[in-house]
Amino acid sequence: MENKIPYKTYLNENEIPKQWYNLRADMKNKPAPLLNPGTLKPMTAEELSGVFCSELVKQELDNDTAYFDIPEEIQNFYKMYRPSPLVRAYCLENALGTPAKIYYKFEGNNTSGSHKLNSAIAQAYYAKKQGLKGVTTETGAGQWGTALSMACSYFGLDCRVYMVKVSYEQKPFRREVMRTYGASVTPSPSDTTNVGRKILAEHPGTTGSLGCAISEAVEAATSNEGYRYVLGSVLNQVLLHQSIIGLESKAAFEKIGVKPDVIIGCAGGGSNLGGLIAPFMGEKLRGENDYRIIAVEPASCPSFTRGKYAYDFCDTGMVCPLAKMYTLGSGFIPSPNHAGGLRYHGMSSTLSQLYDDKLMEAVSVEQTAVFEAATQFARVEGILPAPESSHAIRVAIDEALKCKETGEEKTIFFGLTGTGYFDMVAYQKYNDGEMTDYIPSDDDLAVGFAGLPKVDL
Amino acid sequence: MENKIPYKTYLNENEIPKQWYNLRADMKNKPAPLLNPGTLKPMTAEELSGVFCSELVKQELDNDTAYFDIPEEIQNFYKMYRPSPLVRAYCLENALGTPAKIYYKFEGNNTSGSHKLNSAIAQAYYAKKQGLKGVTTETGAGQWGTALSMACSYFGLDCRVYMVKVSYEQKPFRREVMRTYGASVTPSPSDTTNVGRKILAEHPGTTGSLGCAISEAVEAATSNEGYRYVLGSVLNQVLLHQSIIGLESKAAFEKIGVKPDVIIGCAGGGSNLGGLIAPFMGEKLRGENDYRIIAVEPASCPSFTRGKYAYDFCDTGMVCPLAKMYTLGSGFIPSPNHAGGLRYHGMSSTLSQLYDDKLMEAVSVEQTAVFEAATQFARVEGILPAPESSHAIRVAIDEALKCKETGEEKTIFFGLTGTGYFDMVAYQKYNDGEMTDYIPSDDDLAVGFAGLPKVDL
């Protein structure tokens, strides 16, 4: 028996989108601008150009242009691992016994193991075009660092990665993949930067954090001739590049004549979610179509569901511009038992504004429930999902089970951002029944909130 | 600029082959039969049925039927991760500056990380259909064990994996993937079998070997009601299932109007090579087309290039049937510095016969050269290859460089069997400049040859 709708829908190579879509162009309430932490005035292009590549600064600040051409060099790189498949989860539907129709866009079929490569190659390209020697960045779990290493190796750029120390030690294989692609990887905090030395002096035993690694990477970029800093999430430019996920998904849905009812994405800094929903949210903003859109975050790092919408520091060292976002405060540190990524204290300004405008929902889930969903999914769909992605799987399964109760045949669509091959320590904990949950108390959260800067605009 | 030939050619879902191709049907000189180690007579279906599932025994013994229907349940599973892409390696060609056109069939885009899943799902299906409780097997690097775990989990079969002890300890993540799919994993040799206890008593400090793990898995299958043994390579049935690789490749080549001149595959037990070349070799055997076919093996385990064509034991414990094959002797153990898989002492009987009939060539390569090719490939093609696959990459690059010298525009096609995410210890050694080569001396080989059984037919 042939299925009317295939398990996997691939676009043809010439159907891969040739433009990125800038969601901000269709937003009535634009995301709040980045602020200079000294003057509290919006960062100018000139100020940002010391940190970021010039073309990326333009993309970062442009709230009006709806479409940006994807340069041919980037299109060619995309062809190496794109289009990614839009998968109909027949086996999961069967296992759940749900009348719902479940689809997912799988971004894990490349060596970085996630969607991060979509923006890494763009950022590396613009750095190369500007004649830079190299770029610096931070990485936590290592997906972004791996993606950037691949992109830099392709364009012959030097790549310096500051890797959160605990990950550097616990994920030696991620480190080796980056080294295989020619990157230098430094555990953070390190003694190679002023901010790193300061943090080490104040917290001698620290295992590091993303916010701290960001500070080091920014310092390394601004204090080395010919270097700029690049970031894998949160920024407007990253969401722009990641729109390729949503654009491909939408084109594939149109190819098979299907329209999703519910769109679900995991949310850490927002790179995947922002890219996944972009063209769908665009239709919603323009009043052409309606979709229910759900952001899923870990209960242990709940920036949307329990954070404040406020200007905050993006990094621990407070060297970066201030961003207005749903945030837990740059001083918030998730519990060490938190296994599943998505541990950034803040959230993309663009998504924060959309959430504040009630154009999307957010839910938080606990990690044992996330790994339960991950295992269930892996066993029937044959893909071992990244813990991050599994947050979306959890809620997709929950929504499908609701349909089972009500009998509704909803079309549920989620983003499967990556694979979990380098997350087996967390899976082992789950397999051994040793994984526990953690929900920060209001007092825990108060510590982070207390560090929010006083900004009165 | 659009490429006339895309980077990646995918078949449509309904174009995935619905039959496996049995290469033996077109061979004039059939592969030699398995022998009962006691009587030295060809194993009967009845004898084999104590070890293998009945349908698989039929496939194993059938040298005449050219095509076997793929059951619908297996077709459906294939749709979860197939078709796999036929990739035009534009970026590698560019980096080499060769006029050659390079293609590869990439089988690594599934959670087992390799082509092994193609046969695992078939063997699990027939076990389920026969009403068995479960299956036993061995695994070395863990690709086969992972694939079988996935397949068993899909059909609800118990899966017991004997994992070579050194891999069990050095590759805890592979072990956890198997456990996530519900398999039980035992380091081999173990005290759970007679043969394991015997080997432990004789070699107390042993870190195990594939041959030893096979013996344990066979004993576990034959001594437990409702269990059978399954094997991921060497056997005729495995090559049959793996023909899906070659069949899809051939269909994809026809779709883009290209015919390969040279076909290159890595060869350990022969599962990938046999599957990759099947339909091409079929045309060659039938005189319809000619192809140059090259098997690539490690210089440290050179069964084709330095082995003897003789009946030999398939396992260390000598409990399995005897197979006629190019072999280094079941007592041959590759040097511990050998990193790149492909460490089985023998070679598929089917491929051995084809090689003996001079229908294909074989070359051996040293491991530092293999990892050099792997790294070069990874950096431009964006896929981190498995060490096994990288043997084929090495020779594909060498052939492409020869074309650069001669100016020939040959079409080179190789099998990229899988990804190297779980092989980062070996990559680290290479990155750190600590990898060395090893070529066994004639005296080293003599040890293995001395243990060959005396079979006079």
Share in helix of chain A:
40-55%
Strand runs of chain A, count: 15
Oligomer: homodimer
The strand order across the widest sheet of chain A is 1-4-5-15-10-11-14
Protein described:
Two copies of one chain form a homodimer. Chain A has 457 residues and is of the alpha/beta class. The first copy, chain A, is built from 18 helices and 15 strands. Chain A has helices at 45-48, 54-61, 72-81, 90-96, 117-129, 143-155, 165-170, 172-180, 194-202, 210-222, 236-256, 271-285, 303-306, 349-356, 367-381, 387-406, 424-431, 442-450, and strands at residues 8-9, 19-21, 67-69, 86-88, 101-106, 134-139, 158-164, 184-188, 227-229, 262-266, 292-298, 308-313, 322-327, 361-365, 411-416. In chain A, strands 1-4-5-15-10-11-14 form a seven-stranded mixed sheet, sandwiched between helices. In chain A, helix 6 runs parallel beside helix 8. The mean pLDDT of chain A is 94. Chains A and B meet through helix 3, helix 6, helix 8, helix 15 and helix 17 of A and helix 3, helix 6, helix 8, helix 15 and helix 17 of B.
